[in-house]
Amino acid sequence: MQSLPQAVSELVHDGDVVALEGFTHLIPFAAGHEIIRQGRRDLTLVRMTPDLVYDQMIGAGCASKLVFSWGGNPGVGSLHRMRDALGAGWPVPLQIEEHSHAGMANRYVAGASGLPFAVLRGYAGTELPEHTDTISTVTCPFTGEELAAVKALNPDVSIVHAQRADRAGNVQFWGILGVQKEAVLAAERAIVTVEEIVDELTPVPGAVVLPHWVLDAVAVAPGGAAPSYAHGYYDRDNAAYRAWDKVSRDREAFSVWLKDLKEKSS
């Protein structure tokens, strides 16, 4: 166990490929904010569904590239800091690499499995393969069918949030699950923030347990997924998502938000 500032300081470096995963809930906002505070730069940010946390990190100048399959403020609208970086290069220019959800998920699975690529039926009728060098085709040796192939995704560091960990560093999470397990297993290094430390991980239906030996750091961060939710702990703060739309539209308002964030300790 270690503090979140220590984990980020030791394991997240300038120029890294960084994945912050969590679908609908358990989004690792606290970790993203700590990366902003520590001033990381030139990151390739990877996430199936970039939302507020990546809009904030992009606006703070942490990212030079975004690898994703959908981006927006869920239920509200666009990511305006992302749009500003793409359109005007503010605060720094941003490159993008776009995939389908299935393509991104399969890339994580290939990375977690130690395979060089994954095969799927997808991308037919789209122009993504023409613009994305991590999408190709492969011919099935058994049927001769041409299938889509996507390059394995192996982040330098993956960061996820979970409900709890035991004192040995084993992590348990449940609820709506995305690709957190695969992102962790595919990464060179892994950080997990948790709501609490418990003596025993009691069984929960549908729960996933990440054993301590696949993790590099576990940090206690109560409320670490807010304003998203942590199933069984707190609800989604819908007002915060709506409020972000106004903040993110204006560079000056965002700069005030960023200054306030940097002055807070994690």
Automatic annotation (TrEMBL):
GO MF annotation, one: CoA-transferase activity
SMART domains given in the database record: CoA_trans
SUPFAM superfamilies: NagB/RpiA/CoA transferase-like (SSF100950)
Annotated family: Belongs to the 3-oxoacid CoA-transferase subunit B family.
Protein's recorded name: CoA transferase subunit A
Gene3D superfamilies recorded: 3.30.30.40, Glutaconate Coenzyme A-transferase
Keyword Transferase carried by entry: yes
Keyword tags: Transferase
